[in-house]
Amino acid sequence: MSVWTELSGQPAAIELFRSAATAASHRAGSGDAPTDSAMSHAWLITGPPGSGRSNIAYAFAAALISGDPDGDAVTAAQVEARSHPDLAVLSTEGVSIKVDDVRQIVRSSAYSPSVGRYRVMVIEDADRMPERTSNVLLKALEEPPERTVWILCAPSEADLIPTIRSRVRSVRLRVPSVDDVAALLIARDDVPPPLAEQAARHAQSHIGMARRLATSREARDRRDETLVAALGIRTVTDAVMAAARLLEIAGDDAKAITAERDAEERQKALHSLGVEPGATVPAALRGQLKALEDDQKRRATRSLRDGIDRILVDLSSLFRDVLMRQLGRQDSTINVELSDGLAAAASLSTPAQTLASLDAITAARTRIEGNVAPLLALEAMLIAFRRREESVS
What range does the record give for the signal peptide (predicted)? Predict the structure, then answer.
């Protein structure tokens, strides 16, 4: 099976990367210098969240390392497990990528491939590199070893500093269609077709979120509660109470994603340190556990922010549906299951008021990114929502 088989909705990008892998394979086999225009030593894969940036990056990595444009099963499995000796990965579960982590991957990029045709360096969430951290990467992108390829992933080119953008070949992914994502869920995860379509539609073609909605009843319930709460706001009191509940929902969602992983990591750490379950941790070893706990706290902070952002995306879809109804369009409704509530909201407000609600969502996201307390940002946003309940003259 090809490494490209399970990728969804990106035929143009897949063809480009497959052609590049073909050129790279021929070049590696002949020992020629890197002159083929189909191939580059550094790539930037951009696209909206959920478009499959990292999936394509790792498929391309497997094709390059194996020397086969379609990859091979052994290499693909090792790349998927992030265990191939010729693959280096830098990702973060915190708010930003640390400069020391970039220095480490830059040092390792100088190694020659050990068993594969190429050594591939993947940086997920490259947009989370501060400028100082990005500058550490520049030298490696300017003068990489002949058999080293860099693959960076970010939402857009604008998320990286200009000097990085000038040294990479950029490939923009499109948003997959709902049908493409639903088909992937059916084929890969054996999700029933009606549920797959609903999850893909509610996730707005975000592949990762669609899978989560399709496989977690709790995630679907939390999303439903969020939208119903937004439709039910009539007073400032309603807004304040709803803000507290939305923050709780985001926290529950974050815990559902991280709690099991945190416990597993702690258990593995204790095992590697030779500490029996339930036993007191020796003072000399507590520093190592403290470092793990600090990493987990940073991951929890990011997970909470991601959970809040998912709520904001869902609310945007809600008011987008309201606005479409106000403009006489119902053919592309995202939240079909809330038709009655959408109709009521559309009749009780004007398009200008609905646009003000969408602006309030954008303002809440900006404030949270600026480290405003999430609860205060959510309260201000939800208070703005109640304006759509004023009488329409």
Answer: none
| Secondary structure of the chain in HEC code, one letter for each residue | CCCCCCCCCCHHHHHHHHHHHHHHHHHHHHCCCCCCCCCCCEEEEECCCCCCHHHHHHHHHHHHHHCCCCCCHHHHHHHHCCCCCCEEEECCCCCCCCHHHHHHHHHHCCCCCCCCCCEEEEECCHHHCCHHHHHHHHHHHHCCCCCEEEEEEECCHHHCCHHHHCCCEEEECCCCCHHHHHHHHHHHHCCCHHHHHHHHHHCCCCHHHHHHHHHCHHHHHHHHHHHHHHHCCCCHHHHHHHHHHHHHHHHHHHHHHHHHHHHHHHHHHHHHCCCCCCCCCCHHHHHHHHHHHHHHHHHHHHHHHHHHHHHHHHHHHHHHHHHHHHCCCCCCCCCHHHHHHHHHHHHCCCHHHHHHHHHHHHHHHHHHHCCCCHHHHHHHHHHHHHHHHCCCC
Identify the CATH homologous superfamily for domain 11-172: P-loop containing nucleotide triphosphate hydrolases (3.40.50.300)
